[in-house]
Amino acid sequence: MEQAFNQALINSRVIHGAIKAAGIYHYRMDYQDFVQDGIINYANVYHKYAPQEEMTKINQLAFQKNQMASTGSTEKANEAKC
Predict the structure, then answer these.
(1) 23 touches 71 (CB < 8 A)
(2) On the CB side of 12, how many CA atoms lie within 13 Å of its CA?
(3) What rounded mean pLDDT belongs to the chain?
(4) Residue 71 three-state SS
(5) How far apart are the first and last CA of the chain?
(6) What is the model's pTM?
């Protein structure tokens, strides 16, 4: 699992790109929370798929998972504001 977290840190552009694609930008107060969640999501995807998939596929899966997680969290935060 340690290698999975190391890969998440090495490929942090994937994490930041997914967060940005979800419409969350660095000036938000909770941006670092999304980054931490993204690192965990990436590590989980890497740990699950690394033995059988190449890095390009892992990055794509992690990007999609982080984007969906970020979008869902944004929607919940917007609902709470109302």
Answers:
(1) yes
(2) 7
(3) 79
(4) helix
(5) 39
(6) 0.65
